[in-house]
Amino acid sequence: MLNWLDAGATLAEMVDWAADGPGGSVILFDEQGLRAHASNGVESLATGTPIGLDSIMRCASVTKHVFASFVLAHPEVIGLDDPLGKHLPQLAAGAAGVTVGRALDMSGGLPDTRECLTLIGHSIFTQTFAPDLLEFHAGMERLNYAPGVEVHYSNGGYRLVEEAMRAHGLLFDDFLKREMREARGLPMRAAEMWTDPVPGLCDGYWHDGKGWKLGLQGMHLSAAGSLTGSARALAEWGRALVLDEGSFAGRLAALTATRRLADGRPTGYGLGMRRQWVGARELVGHGGSQPGFKTYLLLDPVTRTGCAVMANRDDVNTSNIAARVMAAALGEALPVSGSDLVPGLYVAPEGADWIEVMAASVSRLDDEVAVYPISTGGVDSLSPTSSLKLRMQGADVVGEVGHVPMRFVPAQPEPIPEALNGRWVSDAFGAVLEIRDGAVLMGAGPTRHAMPLQSLGQGRFLFTLHDGPWVRRICLNRLGEGRFELALSRARMIEYRAL
C-alpha cells in the first residue's frame, strides 16, 4: 500500500516558489494515471502566464534515456557492441574504439563537448553547430580515461551516437514524432539549437544574485539534452515505461540493465538511466540541467509509480524533490548528508586530479556532489556517475573515485613559476591563452579577463572562470617543460604548449 496522502502533501510543499516568478510542476503518478500534482510560478516574466502541467520546458539530460530508447529501437542499424568508428570513421583511434554501449553508459572516457569548448576559451553563449562539433571531436586524440576503467558523466558519447544515427539517415525527432506526438499525443520535440522555435516553449531563468536572467546556450544541444516537453508528457512517458506494454515492452529493463566496467564490476548507470536508492528501495531515473531549466524523472518499476519534475528556474534541486515525494509514497526515509573527512583542498600525487572536501559535499575536478556518512567511517556519494567512496588515512584522503582507487594528499601551495609566463597555444584546436603575473588571461577586447592561479603543489594550479550562470574551477597541470593540460571533470585532455 502506497501512502498517497503523505506523498501528495510532500509534493504540495515542494512548489513553494513565488507565484509571480519562475517555477515549475511536480507530478506523482502510477499505472492508472496522475495521483497528485502541483504547479507554481509563471512561464515567462514578460507575460506572467501561470505555469501548468502542459507548459512546455526543456528536459535537458532527461533526454538521454529517451534517445537511448530510439537507439534500441534500431538494432538492425546500430548495436551496443559496435565501435563508434564503424559508423563514424573520421574519429581518432581512441574515440573510434569506444563502443556505442560505453558511449551511452558513461564508461567510455569520451570528453564532454561543452567543457572542451570552455577549455579552449569559448563561452556558453558561443554559437556552434553539429557538423563543426563532429569535426571538433574527430580532432581529439586523447580520451579522459581508458574505456571501461571509470564512470564519469559526459555528454560527448550521446553527441557521437546521435551523429552515428544521423549518418544512417535516422533522426531523433522523427522517432519523437512517430512514438510520442503521433502514437501517444505527447508534445515532445528535439530542439537541436536553443534558437529553434518550439510551440509554447517557456522561458528559462537563472539568478545572478541581483535578478533573474534568461537562460541561453549557443552550442548545438545534441541528443544529450535536446528534448522539450511538458511535465504531463514526461509523466506519461514514465507511465509508458513502467506499464511495460506495446512498443515499449521491455524498454525500461533494457535502459536500466546492469552495465559493467572492463573488470566486470557493475556501475549503477545504464543507458541514460541511473539506479538510485530511496531508503531501502532501488529506483531508477535521471535528472537534467540547462541554463534556466531543471528536470527529473524517478521511477519505481516494482510499484509502477513515479515522479516527474520540471522547472524553468535552475536553482531548483529537482532530484531532491523527486526523491522526497517518492520516499513519502513508499514510506521510506532518505539519508542525511554529512562528512567526517577533514575539510580542505587535496590533490592526487600526480596528474590533474584534485578534490575539495566540504561539510557535506566533495568537489572532484569541479564536480560537486553531496556525500553521506558510512557506518565504518568515511563517506559515499551514492551517485553512479559521480561515484566517491572516501575515508581519511592519516592526513590523506583515500578510496575510490569513479570506481578507480585513488589517494589525495593535502594541497601544498608553492610559488607560481616564472616559466608559466607567456603565450600558450593548443595546436589541435588553435586556441591561445596567456599567463602573466600569476593569472591566466583568456578572451579578446571586452571579453578578455584575468583569472588568478591558485597553487595546489607540484605543478598543479586552479583558476576560476565565470561564464554566465556557470562558475568553473579549472586545473592547470604542468606536463613538462613548455607543456600543460587543462582539466575539468568531464574534459581532461586539452593540451597547450608554449609559443
Summarize the main sheet. 9 strands, antiparallel
**Share of β-strand residues:** 25-35%
- Counting DSSP H or I runs of 4 or more residues, the number of helices is 12
Which CATH architecture of the largest domain is right? Answer: 3-Layer(aba) Sandwich
CATH topology of the largest domain: Beta-lactamase
Give me the Rg, rounded.
22 Å
Within the largest sheet, what's the order of strands?
15-14-13-12-20-19-18-17-16
CATH homology superfamily name of the largest domain = DD-peptidase/beta-lactamase superfamily
Whole-number total of structural domains: 3
What's the end-to-end separation, in Å? 68 Å
What do you see in this structure?
With 499 residues, the chain is of the alpha+beta class. It folds into 3 domains: 4-68 and 170-330, DD-peptidase/beta-lactamase superfamily (Beta-lactamase, 3-Layer(aba) Sandwich); 344-410, no CATH class; 418-498, Lipocalin (Beta Barrel), CATH 2.40.128. It has 12 helices and 29 strands. The strands form 5 sheets. The chain has a 9-stranded antiparallel sheet with strand order 15-14-13-12-20-19-18-17-16, with no helix packed on it. Strand 26 and strand 27 form a beta hairpin. The mean pLDDT is 97.
